[in-house]
Design brief:
This protein is mostly helical. The chain contains 4 helices and 2 strands.
């Protein structure tokens, strides 16, 4: 009587040196590719940043304050600090922000940023 190995549904396929189970096809996860690190807003200090930016933008009208603040936070968080600084420069050119306020916002962005 012979003992049959493996399941009865799947016949045993003996693998030699060139079997498909050898080498890179062993089910290992692919190697991770490191993404490019950018200078972005530090998420651990987000509440502090929002409080500081609210204190700076008290001089703006209510309808402009919310849109500028929201866009600034989104660009600094999702894209990078340079995109947020370009947005601040655009708002200076449109006349929404003064040069002094823009300088203080730029200092805040650099203070509350990290590479991630």
């Amino acid at each position: 009587m012979t003992i049959r190995r493996g399941s009865p549904r799947k016949p045993f396929r003996g693998g030699g040196k060139n079997s498909a189970r050898r080498g890179s096809d062993r089910g290992y996860p692919p190697k991770k590719v490191q993404s490019v690190r950018k200078r972005r807003l530090n998420l651990k200090r987000m509440t502090e940043f929002k409080w500081e930016i609210n204190q700076l933008m008290n001089d703006l009208p209510e309808n402009q304050r919310g849109t500028v603040k929201g866009s600034l936070i989104a660009k600094a968080d999702k894209l990078d600090i340079n995109a947020a600084l370009d947005f601040v420069q655009l708002k200076i050119d449109e006349g929404v922000l003064s040069k002094d306020m823009a300088d203080r916002i730029a200092d805040l962005l650099l203070k509350f940023s990290t590479y991630r």
